[in-house]
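Proteins fold reproducibly. Take a sample protein:
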Amino acid sequence: MPSAPSPVLSVVVPMFNEQEVLPLLVGRLRPVLDGLGEPYELVAVDDGSSDQTPVLLQAHRRSWPQLRIIRLRANAGHQAAISAGLARALGQWIITLDADLQDPPEVIPEMLAAARQEQADVVYGVRADRSTDSSFKRWTAHGYYALMRAMGATGAPDNAGDYRLMSRATVDAVNALPEDHRVLRLVVPALGFPSTSVSYARERRAAGSSKYPLARMVRLTLDSVTGFSSAPLKLATWFGLSGFLVALALLGYALVAKANGHTVAGWTSTVVIVAAFGAVQLLCLGIMGEYVGRTYAALQRRPTYYVAHDSARDSDRDCVQQPQSPPSGERSPERDPHRT
């Protein structure tokens, strides 16, 4: 019996407790992929879901042979789940897409055509219209990208999240990186491969609840800042230098006041100054602590995720992803317990 042709396109979809939206996703994504007229695979990465997501995936696979299920033993986080899919995707082109349908799958043919016509290795999906997002979401997203640009940590277009198409060469390069706590929306642009973009209107979440609360947004920002720039450490240095200069100025003022027979007024100013200096010192220690923590985690070399089952590799049912890079270049990035 002849083997199935290698897929031209792989679509990696991380999922965590998406039982409400999964039928809607299948209903919209399958017609798009079938309409391409090319071999493809849908790599659904079940990120340790505790609801009916695994059951629904198995049910859909019975009638959708291109659906491939990768089940992680425990929740590893959004970025780690995407990395698990990228490490096992077989396509010449690979697309990463969230399951919530806020990024419309109907844009996939346009992304694939743009990559071929412009000979680009990366096609970013850019959210040109975010009116369906809350004002707070739009404001924080704008602040995030502005901060990343200021630190030179991203070359991607603004409002380009994790909806992107990548060539096999790009994915192989990402898989070979020894980086921990990787934030893919920054890692991919940092490679500097030829890229282009397509625009679309961001939609509302089709069903279910967001898996990305404020705490995880903050964690993503911290990982982005400390993972791609040493600017915060330099900022701590400048805070210390500025504080030293202010202290010298206050010392000069106190000496002049004493020489002229004037008493330095009030305890309020003293308390404010001491509190301000204490806050700056704690901020600097916190910044350095983030970097030290990242270094410590990298030295531990713990696996990022554990694959319980890959429907395309039944023999890998009990496979454990190790942090070392195997000959194929597949590697598990450091565990990211947060979804993006």
Notes: The two ends are 42 Å apart (CA to CA).
